[in-house]
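Many introductory courses stop at the sequence. We go one step further.
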Amino acid sequence: MLPATSQNTQPVSVLYGELTDREMQAIDSDGSTTPIHVNQPVWVIKYTNVPIPLLGPGANGTYQSTMYVFVDAVNGNYMFAIADAG
């Protein structure tokens, strides 16, 4: 179960793959950029029924979402998570 979630939040699948993300980039000393994750082995854990807080002025409550948690398959460290927009 994910921290701070309900019993209804359970992993529904775990996938193994390689992650290439060209959006997250490091800035090199010469000003050029290098992608941080290129063909990186990862575990992707899919959760459903994740309560996501509503954001913005006057926002109150949560909505149910699907969340994907990325874990480095080499060292087991948490990398990042993304949730669908509902």
